[in-house]
Every structure is written in structure tokens, then in C-alpha cells.
Write a structure and sequence with these properties.
69% helix, 136 residues, mainly alpha
Amino acid sequence: MSKLFSLLLVVSILLISNSVQAGFITKYSDWRDLNASEKRAFVMGVYDTNHSSTGNRTKDETANIFGIDVCGSSLNLGSAMLADAVDAAYLRNPQRWGNMGVVMVHGVLHHMCLNYINNFRQKFKLKPLKPWENWK
């Protein structure tokens, strides 16, 4: 086995194990145990997954995605900023420590971008969304 092949094999295994680990963020303690780079990768994975598919979206989904996209651009939102916001959301909402990481990312985006989302919902003639109950 060549040195290059061995190196590529090791790097591939490490990348796969990190992505698998990020997929199983089932509660706050899982999130807390991630390092900063894993948190950034996780939030961007959630963000990209929700924005990658372009077909068969409802008006509701489209309005929400457009609102989040404009919000992200307006706020110059990056992975570090979003990961920090998820950290803060978990800390402000201990009643949600049992929530999956994906739910918390969606919650942060929902609340951070609610005005932008509702502007698009109005253009699509949809009812505005409200903040989640008991979200701080």
C-alpha cells in the first residue's frame, strides 16, 4: 500500500466518523460534546440540506426558505455565528435540552429570521408564523 493511499484512507475514515457523529445529535449533551469545528459543520449541514433541494416545494416551504436566505445574507450569517446562536439557545432554553440538534438549528433560524420569513409569507399570501411557545 502506498503512503498516499494510506493517508487518503485514514483521512476518509476520520471524515466519515465525524459526519456520522454529527448526525446523531439527539440532545444538548451530544451538542455540548462537539468541538467548535464539528458544531460549524453540523449547522451548515442542516442549513445546506434544507436549501439543496429545489423541486416539489410547497409555497409554505418556499416562503420560509426565501426568508431564511435573505435573512442569512442580510445578517452575514456564517457557520460560526449560527453555531454560537445554537449554543446560546440551548443555554437559554434548558427545557429543550432533550431536543435534537437539528430542531435547535431550525429554532434558531426560525426566531432569528422570523420577520424575513413572514415578509415572504405575506408575498405568498400565507399566514405569518409565530415564535415557538416558551422559546427564549
